Amino acid sequence: MTKEAAKESKLNQPAVQPVLDGNKGAGSGKILGTVLTIISASAFALMAIFAKYAYKEDLNLPTILSLRFLIAALIMWVVVLAGRKNSWPGLKGVLAIMAVGGVSYGLQSSFFFGAVRLIPASIASILLYMYPVIVTVLSAWIFRERLTRYKILSLVISLVGLIMVVGMAFQGLNLKGVLFGLGAAVVYSLYLISSNRLLYDNDPVVMTTCIITAAAVVFNTAGRAKGNVVLPDTAMGWWSIAGIAVVSTVIAILTLFQGMKLVGPSRASIISAIEPVVTVAAAALLLGERISWLQIAGGLLVIAAVITLQLEREVPGKE
Q1: By CB distance 3.0 to 4.6 Å, which of 8, 146, 150, 237 could disulfide with 312?
Q2: 278 located within any domain
Q3: Is 0.85 topped by the overall pTM?
Q4: Where are the alpha helices (DSSP H) in 248-315?
Q5: Mean pLDDT to the nearest integer, 144-162
């Protein structure tokens, strides 16, 4: 839940997923890396499901986000401080990534959880998964990156897929929820573009922890000031929060980074394409959600568009 090269959720989800230079392992290393990446993608995919359960327990958005980032930040700091090989960036780098990442990641999470509240979890996940294609468009516009045949093909496929997912079903979907879902994808794309160099130059686990901490401070400060953060009063409420914070944030992030070290970012991105598929399956099994075959086909096209982008990097001679 970074993620431009690694799925890349989702942090919500996302999750923060920077572009890394992974060393491609061989043999058992590749198998382990593949398994870890599948675990990561599945963990990110379950975030929307946990969020649905949280809403069923009458938890509001400020409470969900405040507790998610607070619990995740505490666990991540334990992991970081326990690590002996973590490289620490300078204060300037930490403040920069906390400012950029904390705000944008927090906003992206707000949009995504807002979408999950209003539309099916499966549709919200597919909309968020548009972000790799959006990154391609923004990179071409802002940085004048060349639009290759692979990229153009990916854009066409993704747009057709998006129309199939939401264009034919606006009568049955909440428009605000759809806009929230697309907004989450756009904000996450802007975050990836603006923070890519900071994440690339520093330890991703340390920097991600700083981002989660910044989001925790922002949401808990604002929530406490407004008095709209209310602790869950049911066991299911706490379980749903634990799922979001521990499974879909901490476990998802750590297994992603470990998987990328073993298989490399491009392969990790392709493997992570299972994320919306897992969300759709879990939503059907656990929430009873049903989407049309047309929407399923559209979702598969969105996934195909992401894979097409990554396949370009695998072609010899391509940069």
Answers
A1: 150
A2: yes
A3: no
A4: 252-263, 265-271, 275-282, 293-314
A5: 82
d(CA 61, CA 42): 23
Res 199: pLDDT: 60
Give me the percent of the chain exceeding a pLDDT of 70: 83
In a domain, 215, yes or no: yes
CB neighbours of residue 117 within 10 Å: 20
Give the number of C-alpha atoms closer than 13 A to the C-alpha of residue 113, restricted to the C-beta side.
27
- CA-nearest of 110, 105, 135 to 212 is 105
d(CA 210, CA 77): 9
Q: Which residues does 79 contact at the CB level (< 8 Å), separation at least 6?
A: 205, 209, 250, 254
Is 188 within 8 Å of 14 (Cβ atoms)? yes
- 228 within some domain: yes
Question: Of the ranges 113-117, 131-135, 241-245, 283-287, which one carries the lowest mean pLDDT score?
Answer: 131-135
As a residue count, the chain comes to 319
Instruction: Tell me which residue range forms the domain holding 42.
Output: 3-314
- Show the CA angle centred on residue 170, arms to residues 169 and 172, nearest 5°: 70
Position 319 in a domain: no
Domain count, the chain: 1
Mean pLDDT of the chain: 81
Helical ranges in 85-234 per DSSP H? 91-118, 121-128, 131-142, 149-162, 175-201, 204-226
At which residue do the structure tokens 């959880």 appear?
113
* Amino acid of residue 57: E
Contact in structure between 158 and 103 (CB atoms under 8 Å): no
